[in-house]
Model the fold of this input.
Amino acid sequence: MEALAQFIVAGLKSGAIYALLALGFTIVYASTGAINFAQGEFFMLGGVIGVWLLSLGMPIPLAVLGAIVLTAAIGVVFEILAVRPIEGGDPLRIIMVTIGGSVLLRQLALHAFGPDELTFPAFTRGPSIRLLGAAIERQTVWIWGLTLLAVLALAAMYRYTGFGKAMRATSIRSEAARLVGIDAAGMVTASFGLSAALGAMAGLVVAPLTQTAFNVGSAIGLKGFAAAILGGLGNPVAAVGGGLILGVLESLTAGYIDPLYKDAVALVVLLLVLFIRPQGLFGGAAREKV
Amino acid sequence: MRGRDLRLLMAVLVAVLVAALAVTMAGCTPAQQTETQGEGTTQGEPIKIGAIVSLTGTYAGLGDPEKKAIEMEVDRINKAGGINGRQIEVIFEDDGTDETKAVAAVSKLIEQDKVVAIIGATGTGPTMAVRGDVDRAQIPQVSMAGGTVITETFDDLVFQTPWSNKIVMPYLLKYMKDHDITKIGVISDSGGFGKDALAVLQKSAPGAGVEIASSQTFNPGDTDFTAQLTKVKDSGANALVIATAGKEASAIAKAAKDLNIGMPVYGTHGNARTEFIEGAGDAAEGFRFPAGKILLPETYGTDTEAYKVATDFVNRYTAANGKAPDTFAGHAYDAINLIAEAAKRAQGDLTPAALRDEIEKTAGWVGIGGTFTFSPEDHNGLSENDIVMYEVKDGKWVLAPEN
Done:
């Protein structure tokens, strides 16, 4: 029982990180219909830039904020330089560009920040918290708290702000949105910035637990992608659900079957979902974008 | 339509540019590293040595200091007049911690550059992967990787500078036994180093009077170790042994503390990096690991030749790189110098075969990893006397209490 609680805590911890990445995939997918394969690199950039800002003498909160803003800016620049020229072009080409972009960002990070793993200190120090016999690291509480905050902020933005409504309108029907005066291209740029910020936040909040390095992006990016597919692409709530389920599933597999098979089990479940419910666990009827 | 075509063209152009840039960035890493050293006045052709190191990928943090150490030593040797009047030229190739790339690199070094010896690789996997080509070309190879398999699966041509697990693990087990630890839990990675370490532990534990109560594995790149550590905790082990050279070690040490596993944590020579201590933070306190004496040169004994060699190396490396060398830089120092010393002794034409024979004749040569004595049966050349047990205290490694 104690072990089960511990496995679930671990699963929800990884799951929250997957959820943040899945949100990034979902946001870009909603605005472009494409998968942004550079999403994992935004995760990496958040961590390494954060460590760099710390080394310049910034306090932790400022470094976190600065890294998120800088990574978002990189996301925006990336979109303007590489994705915008394909505007109206098909998602397949956007995907290609993001794959190239991910290699580029990774190599740039290697040259700028070196090959060694980098350490970001825990946001708050102290012993782990005990709950139902399970130990919860303080950083895990930060992971959950910030994920929740990001999801709520995102939901509020989509629902109540003109900007959020414009983004939604663009994702539902880009042409019509443009006709009523929404800057559709700007919305795509914003979606890249937003998903880069979310990725950076995930990378920062997990860095104190695992350290970070120039090459941490691709593996975690795949997990986030799997989570987004599992939940249902294009739907933020589904993305979060997918992330949490994937995390817990992995943790239980590691706990009760074999840690070496946890990725495989996650993939098998993913394939099953794709066969039985191609729109994802929480996705509504498939919505074809025109 | 024209505008649209233009835009399409732009898109394709940018995509091609990005891809091309990405390819050059990735592809030029080895090309850039193909630096030529040792120009200047030489009598005769330079001696060409190929070095396969991991400058990208999982072991990038190991390959980088290795390359720096080799460059520094080559520079020193050449400035002192080279080897019997000939300069050394080292051609670096990046294997990206990838077997396939290592094979491509070795065939380039052999076919195009016509090197007389290979240094490398950084990791055990790539080291083993190039064996076929090394055998075919019949040139000596000096590996900087720690896997036991490298010299256990014996090859006339292959030497190894780090302490192999076959030396380290029995030492670790004996130390633990002396500290009343009779049941251990092991967590090892599923890659080369972890598998190798686990195999040696399993083989030597019974003889050392230590029982492996729980053996857990993880995949390189994993970020959560709750399941494995919970099982070790419940297994009744008296100590946890982390067997990986990867960056996961610090996250494991940290998780062990957070989960309150309530037993001392031991590691291996794969954790002898400051990045590990920084990453694990408080959780590194009390962590013990066996490694070579280079970490604290006074452990050689201040009046020994080894101490002089080590302090000289530490001082020069620190001056050049602003950072003290780690054990991996030491393995690279040993590799290049073992070859250089052998080349100096060789009479007549410096053929790969003559070089190999001379490397094997190395006896009592004092390097960084220890005192090397090769023989036709032993191509590792080190012994238990070359390692000591360290403990992390106040964020630094110190000598662990003897008994």
